[in-house]
Amino acid sequence: MNEVSAGVLPVSTLLSRRSVKLVGEPGPNDEQIEAALAAAVCAPDHAKLQGWRFALVRQPDILAVGEKAFSVLEGLGKPLTPEKQASTRFWLKDLPLLVAMAYQVHHDHPKVPVLEQTLSMGAAVMNFENAMHAMGYSSFWSTGLGSYTDEMAEYFGFDSLDYQFVGYLGVGMPKNRVIPADRPDPWSVASWFKAP
Ligand SMILES: Cc1cc2nc3c(=O)[nH]c(=O)nc-3n(C[C@H](O)[C@H](O)[C@H](O)COP(=O)(O)O)c2cc1C
Question: pLDDT per residue over 92-101, tens digit each?
Answer without folding.
Answer: 999 999 999 9
